[in-house]
Write a structure and sequence with these properties.
119 residues; 74% helix; elongated; mainly alpha; 2 helices
């Protein structure tokens, strides 16, 4: 066997070995992807079963939404009429600059427990 034939056989063996390693790596990655897709498919079926439970109520929801959407122009017109009739006088809302609580002076029970009378 000449040197050229020997190198040809070695090259072919290296090519086959390289292809075998490549195919092993690709098959391992494909198995990983397949298991991920299987889990995803299970989740999709679970979502589908959950959505089937909601489907009968959608008719009621859509009917309510249609009634509400039909009432919006009337509500908008009523709101416009209220705004037109409203008057705002800035001078009525001017105060002396002191912030006061809306509920009046707040009394603390903690002060009563230590013997201080706020009255």
């Amino acid at each position: 066997m000449s040197g050229m034939q020997l190198f040809t056989v070695i090259d072919i063996a290296a090519l086959i070995a390289g292809l075998a390693v490549y195919l092993y790596i690709v098959s391992t990655q494909l198995k990983t992807v397949a298991s991920g897709l299987e889990e995803s498919a299970d989740l999709v079926w679970q979502v589908k079963s959950d959505a089937e439970a909601i489907a009968p109520g959608l008719t009621s929801i859509n009917t309510t939404g249609a009634v509400t959407a039909g009432a919006l122009p009337l509500l908008y017109g009523m709101g416009e009429a209220i705004v037109v009739g409203a008057t705002f006088n800035h001078d009525d809302h001017v105060h002396d600059g002191t912030n006061k609580p809306a509920m009046g002076t707040r009394r603390s029970r903690l002060m009563e427990s230590v013997g201080i009378d706020l009255d």
